[in-house]
């Protein structure tokens, strides 16, 4: 079973919010919609659930159009950032809410509640009031409520956004393991890159209502398709240049000539491109080094656990950050040599 989203367009206050969004969610896969606030992620979820209508486009399940299928018949589970739990009800009553709406027999409701609480490690909390729970415990109850009706698709809208960093990492790992265990296809919405990489099987980057890139996390990180994608993923070492040679690919920039690893298809000679220098690309060299080198002044050196983050300001005032095994003295003039395989040519 699979979800297909095809050419979704949506207007908001007279302006395009979603512009031809298309992607698939195969069975057993967790797809993360990753993008900045205002990129249309939550609206897209509401369209998929049937809570909002698109101006055009289709939401398909196994090829069947869901346009005329009401929300309660789509059998999709939705979990919000604020959990939307009922404060006056106990944990088990919250988990059972969707099951009661389906008019299931009492014995089956009890069985499914117990099953869902067991999945999220909350068996002993059935009779607790949700107001007595921690944020992480409330998150698990909300997840149990979404799982209890046995949805064919699970959608999670910023589910860890209200938690502190340590708890987010812990519950993020728990969520990933649970989704893989249940094999329920899932759409996970976030603007947090680390969270997305930790949970997703596939990333869909949304930029101004359009799909900027769609691929496995390592593919998206290692080969961003644009300057926007690179910067959004935290890869800020970007330098504009012009293609001056092919085989090997050579790009001339204000700071010299660089030979990035060539990935077909490459841009023709004369094309305006941008170079991405990965933060792990550099080693200390000398002023005699030619291509693939940057010379500048060390502005900052910060210990990061297993390496040092060195900030280098070059003569054109551009600033780059690299991770090196040893610190460099402040205000020193240094030359860093870049590994070609760690240089990416962006359109």
Give a quick summary of the entry.
The chain has 347 residues and is α+β, with helices and mostly antiparallel strands. The protein contains eight helices and 20 strands.
Task: Describe what you observe in this structure.
The chain has helices at 41-49, 91-101, 106-119, 135-147, 165-182, 193-199, 217-222, 227-232, and strands at residues 3-12, 15-25, 30-34, 56-61, 64-65, 76-79, 153-157, 186-190, 202-207, 210-215, 238-245, 250-253, 256-258, 272-277, 282-284, 293-303, 308-314, 319-324, 333-338, 343-346. The protein has two domains: 3-228, P-loop containing nucleotide triphosphate hydrolases (Rossmann fold), CATH 3.40.50.300; 236-346, Nucleic acid-binding proteins (OB fold (Dihydrolipoamide Acetyltransferase, E2P), Beta Barrel), CATH 2.40.50. Helices cover 24% and strands 34% of the residues. The longest helix has 18 residues, at 165-182. It is built from eight helices and 20 strands. By secondary structure, the protein is of the alpha+beta class. It is elongated. The model has no long low-confidence stretch (mean pLDDT 90).
């Amino acid at each position: 079973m699979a979800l297909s989203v095809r050419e979704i367009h949506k207007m908001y206050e007279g302006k395009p919010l979603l512009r031809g969004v298309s992607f698939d969610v195969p069975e057993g896969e967790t797809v993360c919609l990753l993008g900045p606030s205002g990129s249309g992620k939550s609206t897209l979820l509401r369209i998929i659930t049937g809570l909002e209508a698109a101006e055009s486009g289709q939401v398909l399940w196994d090829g069947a159009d869901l346009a005329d299928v009401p929300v309660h018949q789509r059998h999709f589970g939705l979990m919000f950032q604020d959990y939307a739990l009922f404060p006056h009800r106990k944990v088990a009553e919250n988990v059972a809410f969707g099951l009661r709406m389906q008019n299931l027999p009492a014995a089956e409701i009890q069985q499914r509640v117990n099953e869902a609480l067991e999945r999220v490690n909350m068996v002993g909390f059935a009779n607790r009031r949700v107001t007595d729970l921690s944020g992480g415990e409330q998150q698990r109850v909300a997840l149990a409520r979404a799982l209890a009706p046995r949805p064919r698709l699970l959608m999670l809208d910023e589910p860890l956004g209200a938690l502190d960093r340590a708890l987010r990492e812990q519950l993020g790992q728990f969520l990933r393991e649970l989704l893989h265990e249940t094999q329920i296809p899932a759409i996970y919405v976030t603007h947090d890159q680390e969270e997305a990489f930790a949970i997703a099987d596939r990333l869909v980057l949304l930029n101004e209502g359009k799909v900027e890139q769609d691929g496995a996390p390592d593919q998206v990180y290692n080969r961003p398709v644009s300057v926007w994608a690179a910067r959004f993923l935290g890869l800020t070492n970007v330098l504009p240049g012009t293609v001056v040679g092919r085989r090997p690919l050579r790009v001339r920039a204000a700071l010299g000539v660089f030979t990035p690893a060539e990935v077909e298809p490459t841009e023709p000679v004369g094309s305006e491109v941008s170079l991405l220098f990965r933060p792990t690309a550099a080693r200390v060299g000398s002023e005699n080094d030619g291509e693939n080198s940057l010379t500048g002044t060390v502005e900052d050196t910060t210990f990061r656990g297993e390496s040092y983050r060195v900030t280098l300001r070059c003569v054109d005032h551009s600033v780059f950050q690299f991770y090196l095994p040893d610190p460099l003295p402040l205000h020193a003039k240094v030359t860093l040599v870049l590994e070609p395989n760690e240089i990416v040519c962006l359109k």
